[in-house]
Each structure stands twice: as C-alpha cells, then as structure tokens.
Amino acid sequence: MREATVLARLDHPNLPKVSDFFSIDDNDFLVMDYIPGDDLRAVIAKAEANKQFLNEADVIDWAMQIGDALSYLHSQNPAILHRDIKPSNIKVTPAGVVKLVDFGLVKLLAPGEVTITIMQGQGTALYSPLEQYGGDSNMMDGRADIYAFGSTLYHLLTNTPPVNVRDRFLDPSNLVPPREINPAISPRVEDAILWAMELHPNERPRNVKTFLKALTGESTSSLRHLAGKVNFREYQGLDRTEMILLYIAGGLTFFSLLLTLIRNI
C-alpha cells in the first residue's frame, strides 16, 4: 500500500523505523522497531511522586529532538501529520535519545487530493487542537501538531495536563499560565508554549522551526511580528475582490470551528 510505503521510507534518528503495515479484520497495524526506555508520561509521574518539576533544560533538549522529528515529517512529500503528540507517545531511551512513537493517527497531506488517512481517530482530547475535532482534514496542517507539541511541553513543565480545548474555547481563562504553576519556567519558554497553544491555527507559529526558535532564545513577540509582516507581504499582491474572498474564507473557517465545538459538546 502507498501509505505503508511512505512510512517505511522514513529515516530519522528520533522516529522508530516502520518495516511493515497489515490489517486483520477491521484492525490496522504498523510493524516498527522496539524502543526501550520510559515514555514521558511515566517520567512526569515520577516527578509528581517526588513532588518535583522536571528540569527545564532537560525538557528543552527533548523538545529540540521532538521538533526535529516533526519538521522532518512535515517536510515530506506529501507532508505527514502525526496528530497524536502527547507525553505517552514520546519515549526516552537509556542513551537519552527521544523517539516519537505511535503513528496510529498519521495523515498524509497529498496536494490536490483527498487527505489519506492511515488509521482513523481524532487524537487525545487534552492535547488536540479544536480543528482536529471536525473530521474535515482539509482544515488541518502542521499547526495542529504544533498545538499538541505545545500542550505536551505544558504538561511536562507543570505536571498538570492542559485544559481541554473545548473548555478553553468557552472560557479562555481556564488555561492557567505555566509560570503560575511552576515559577521556575523561564518567561521565554512560557511565551513560546502559550503561542503554540493558541486556539486559532493562524495565531500559532507557522512551522515547527519557528516554534523552536521561540523556545530557545528568539523573542516570541518579535517572531509573531515577523510572521505578521510575512503575511502582509503575501497579501499585498491581491486585488480587492481576492481580499474580500480571503476575508470570507477566514470567517467561514472560524464558523466551521465553532460548529465543530458545538457538535462535540
């Protein structure tokens, strides 16, 4: 199958090697490398048991490895979305290498074609963005993974699961800023995480590399400003009719997200 061939072709140090894909009755399976070590949900549980927070430097090191794997997936042709990034789907080997596992909800974004679904599902509610609930894969791109990535880092640094996105949509104040839970988190990292967790995909980092820049030193506000400038330049060449259509499309997207929320309440 084409989907299995695409996954088997992946070769990245922070991804397990997929060697086969098969179905039994209505169940689909991927055959991949065994990854030793604890997943990050277990790491969080140990920190909670010791009444400690994970060290920010360790979390950022893991984030850089996760981000590199995601950038690799998103750069494939067609682009690959993981769609279920969460602590329990990330393992740390005894050598300290992070592996992003569980490709059960992967999607291949084939330009000009209907999105190919390898396994069905919506992701884990606590880490999934609003647009992932609608069932319309054409509304999703790499920024859906960025939301889940930011939500995972929120959990790692606060020992607190993120608030369900539907509850946040109804009351944005439900999400407690990370530094209010763990004051040891640097303001830079907090800003980057909250940027990744913006409700609307257009308000998040444009790609994983931009998010990693915000995590590791470059000002989130300056990166937001730069993204705004880039968008403006892209739109400068549009005529008035095209601009009106663009605004209508944006409004319809927001309305679709709202209907998605209502259907899932």
CATH architecture label name: Orthogonal Bundle
* Strand composition percent: 5-15%
Gap between N and C termini: 36 Å
Q: Sheet bearing the most strands, described?
A: 3 strands, antiparallel
What does this 3D model show about the protein?
The protein is mainly alpha-helical and 265 residues long. The chain is 47% helix and 11% strand. The protein has a single domain, classed as Orthogonal Bundle (Transferase(Phosphotransferase), domain 1). The protein contains 10 helices and 8 strands. A hairpin with a 5-residue loop joins strand 5 and strand 6. Helix 3 (56-74) packs antiparallel against helix 8 (208-216). The chain is globular and about 45 Å long. The two termini are 36 Å apart. Mean pLDDT is 80; it is low at 111-123 and 229-236.
Write the layout of secondary structure elements.
Layout: H1 2-8, E1 18-24, E2 27-32, E3 38-39, H2 40-49, H3 56-74, E4 79-81, E5 90-92, E6 98-100, E7 107-109, E8 116-117, H4 142-158, H5 165-170, H6 178-181, H7 187-196, H8 208-216, H9 220-236, H10 240-264
Antiparallel strand pairs: 1-2, 3-5, 4-7, 5-6, 7-8
Helix pairs in contact: 3-4, 3-8, 4-7, 7-8
